[in-house]
Amino acid sequence: MNRRNAFYDRYRLVFYLLLLGIGLFFLFDGYQTHSNARLLATQGAVTTGKILSKQTRDRRYDLDGLGRKLHLLTYRYAVGGAEFTGEAAVSGERYETSSPGETVAVRFVRDTPDISELSEGTHAAMARSSFLFAFVAFGMLVLMIVFDRIRGRLKQA
What we know:
By secondary structure, this protein is an alpha+beta fold.
């Protein structure tokens, strides 16, 4: 074992398990978000809500087409006498034109009113991002295993 690969060789299983865990996390998150998007599409109803606050966060990547800045609106809505709070990522244009206290349309699931969104398709876009991250993690895991096997065969030759 040469020094260059000693650390990797020693902790190879940890790297495999880490990538597997990351991939499974994003796969589960994507499945759950996709299920919420399907529920909103089939059992969705619309009510009114109020914007409570807005904030902006910097992001490294723009996976959902909303830009490098993540614009979030926190909103509150009531269904059947119970109040719910949600948070939604919105475009920069919508963020600039929205203000706390403004009334907005909120789409929610009738049977599970805590699942909501301000814009149709928000959950579907998040599901695609999660599935993409899962695919990348699983792809990296497969590549690591393939390269390790090739490296092992080259050592034997």
